[in-house]
Amino acid sequence: MFGALATYLPKSEGLLAYWQLLVAFTAVFNSVQNFATLKLTRKIYNVKPNTALQARTFAVWTLTSAVVRAYAAYNIHDKNIYDMAMFTYLIAFGHFSSEWLIFRTASVNPALISPVIVSTTSLIWMFNQYSFYVKA
């Protein structure tokens, strides 16, 4: 069973491509739940009301990031795609940090800390491994 699954995984040295795919699948789950319910969105943002429109907009933004990251997983050596994936993490970090520190619409809790940790870890990892994956 795992042999058949392995044929669909990225073909790349290192673990970064697998990380990109894992984060992309997680983002797809997050998008689906944002389309379906406000329950998890309300755990991040402390602004009332949290609207269905806000959740769907966030879902589309998250799904777009998932597509870029999944594409990067399978094209990890392409400079343009690698850079685009890095920007998705930078945008995510900027969004969640600004909602907490500037706009005060989010408070520190696991729902906020998780995307900050993922975006920070991914940015540092991708920056440090840039020359390994992107050959000039």
Automatic annotation (TrEMBL):
The chain crosses the membrane at residues 15-32, 53-72, 84-103, 110-127. The keyword Hydrolase does not apply. Keywords: Endoplasmic reticulum, Lipid biosynthesis, Lipid metabolism, Membrane, Steroid biosynthesis, Steroid metabolism, Sterol biosynthesis, Sterol metabolism, Transmembrane, Transmembrane helix. Coiled coil: none annotated. The keyword Lipid biosynthesis applies. Its main location: endoplasmic reticulum. InterPro entries: Erg28. Pfam families: Erg28 (PF03694). Belongs to the ERG28 family. PANTHER family: ERGOSTEROL BIOSYNTHETIC PROTEIN 28 HOMOLOG, ERGOSTEROL BIOSYNTHETIC PROTEIN 28-RELATED. This is Erg28-like protein. It comes from Sphagnurus paluster.
